[in-house]
Amino acid sequence: MKPRSVARENHFRALLEAAPDAVVIADAEGRIVLVNAQTERLFGYSRDDLVGQPVEALVPERFRSGHVSRRRAFAAEPRTRPMGEGQELFGQRADGSEFPVEISLSPVDMEEGALIIAAVRDVTEQRRIHHEIEELNQRLVRDNNELTAVNQELEAFSYSVSHDLRAPLRAIDGFSQALVEDYAEQLGEEGRDYLNRVRRAAQRMGLLIDDLIMLSRVTRSEMNPQDVDLGAIAQAVVQDLSAREPDRLADFVIDGSVAARGDVRLLRIAIENLLGNAWKFTARKTPARIEFGCGVHDGVTHYFVRDNGAGFDMAYAEKLFQPFQRLHDDQSFAGTGIGLATVLRILRRHGGDIWAESEVGEGATFYFTLDQRFGRG
Question: What's the rounded mean pLDDT across residues 17-41?
């Protein structure tokens, strides 16, 4: 053999041994002529055991007859391609154990005749992960079906709450009011006080029902993404708040240029809750100061509502956005404890988040984010 040919062969063998996959080279008759070290490790044979054997020695017995026909079909029309596209292939080790494989075939014309190079990869781990993903997907489908059923039950429950409970509450409130107005003298001061307490409790329960229904609706309602003028919404909200209590002194600083993308109805509810929250907790400040605006930090747009109201202890900040959690008593500030939970759900549906910073007696700032890509195809 010429020195140049020897060098070329040595180079080829070095490349073969460096290959990350098992490489099996067979002649046109399907006899193994060369393998690399990865083949020995993967199949458990020595190369001396394999050379001269039919490649079917590496195939489980139940697949061998089919493999012969596929091999002959490849030899009749050789081209580089995966073997058994769309099928699960298996190899067999020297100890008889089987394992899933992927095989790539490449024909090569040599002086001594045509050869077929097969790169064999053990895909046991990939198959395991694939099956786990399939099981997770099936579980997800089941969970989604269960969630759909639960949502339907919640919708039915909301309907029942809305229609079946509101009516008796209105009756309790109405008849209590009639008793106070028509039988005031017979009731006496203590009796009137009891009935007024009944009315306040019925009215509070009505508000709680309304808030619970709102919380349910923002979670389940269909979203319609569009460009939203948050500044205009904020300005409309503070005008409404001022009109309700015209005697209150308040300074509003509203950035009218703030815009975002999302569901305008849901974002309006979020802004109404945040500004209404600020309005409520600045009731004892003269003048109250409420701000709405936005800024950019680390490339992320942060919107904020800031006030100079009662504030809260940051040790309890994690309770703010949980339903029914209140950091102030009813006598100090009215409310049901649902508003901020509603805001959180709205923002989460928009791919955003919310957090707060505060100090007791020094006001609070609520920051929130929205996914700026939301709804953009």
Answer: 91
